[in-house]
Amino acid sequence: MFNNAGVLAESKPEVTVNANLLGCIYGTEIASTHMRKDRGGKGGRIINMSSKAGLTDLPNVPTYCATKHGVRTYTISKSNHPSVEDTGVEYAVLFPGCVLAGLYLKLIEDRIAKQGKPSVARNEYLEIPLSRLLDGFLKLVTLEKMNGAMLEVTPDEDLFVRMEKVVIGSTYPPSL
Ligand SMILES: NC(=O)C1=CN([C@@H]2O[C@H](COP(=O)(O)OP(=O)(O)OC[C@H]3O[C@@H](n4cnc5c(N)ncnc54)[C@H](O)[C@@H]3O)[C@@H](O)[C@H]2O)C=CC1
Ligand SMILES: CCCCCC(=O)CC\C=C/C=C/C=C/[C@@H](O)[C@@H](O)CCCC(=O)O
């Protein structure tokens, strides 16, 4: 199960929280119930889509950022529940930087339409081709064990980090 749906809509906090956080929570809960081995299911893997925004502070997209932090803490909490062994359901989170697709691409295009140039919207050193995100995703799918994995997808390397090793709270300048 991959909970990937999300929006970047700062002017609509309810829409953002519903899609990014509640959607992920309900998707995870419903899938977990169906998958659990101890209740007749076959076990399985649930991968939830956070973002680099789930590891940092972004002054210009605070609601988006809060939902992505929520996805991280919710998923890792699920992975740490003692019943995980019995249920056979594993949980992991993905943290991509800026992927040249979807909502980031739309943000750049909107900037170009408004300002005639992308200007501060581009963060080239954080940009990742879609194929690299797919590689990270497939890594989580094919690993022998992935419960509790936090995979940050960067331009240079895939990094497995657990909660205690993650530095949370650095603030990016409000360029977007
Ligand atoms: N594009 C980027 O740079 C990054 C994106 N992400 C995350 O990746 C995920 C996918 O985003 P993108 O592919 O960029 O955008 P996208 O706009 O191409 O895809 C988002 C999808 O979510 C669906 N969706 C939105 N609200 C929904 C709702 N309430 N119910 C059901 N479906 C809903 C949309 O219909 C769309 O198909 C999101 O969770 C986003 O936060 C994470 C890091 C970077
Ligand atoms: C760094 C956050 C990447 C998050 C990518 C997404 O989830 C999709 C895009 C949504 C929001 C992007 C916000 C980006 C903000 C950054 O451009 C900027 O504030 C970071 C500047 C970094 C720096 O110069 O050190």
Automatic annotation (TrEMBL):
Signal peptide: none annotated. It comes from the Eukaryota. It catalyses: resolvin D1 + NAD(+) = 17-oxoresolvin D1 + NADH + H(+); prostaglandin E1 + NAD(+) = 15-oxoprostaglandin E1 + NADH + H(+); 14-hydroxy-(4Z,7Z,10Z,12E,16Z,19Z)-docosahexaenoate + NAD(+) = 14-oxo-(4Z,7Z,10Z,12E,16Z,19Z)-docosahexaenoate + NADH + H(+); resolvin D2 + NAD(+) = 7-oxoresolvin D2 + NADH + H(+). Gene3D superfamilies: NAD(P)-binding Rossmann-like Domain. Keywords: Oxidoreductase. Coiled coil: none annotated. The keyword Phosphoprotein does not apply. Its EC number is 1.1.1.141, 1.1.1.232. Pfam families: adh_short. Catalyzes the NAD-dependent dehydrogenation (oxidation) of a broad array of hydroxylated polyunsaturated fatty acids (mainly eicosanoids and docosanoids, including prostaglandins, lipoxins and resolvins), yielding their corresponding keto (oxo) metabolites. Decreases the levels of the pro-proliferative prostaglandins such as prostaglandin E2 (whose activity is increased in cancer because of an increase in the expression of cyclooxygenase 2) and generates oxo-fatty acid products that can profoundly influence cell function by abrogating pro-inflammatory cytokine expression. Belongs to the short-chain dehydrogenases/reductases (SDR) family. This is 15-hydroxyprostaglandin dehydrogenase [NAD(+)]. The lineage of its organism: Eukaryota, Metazoa, Spiralia, Lophotrochozoa, Mollusca.
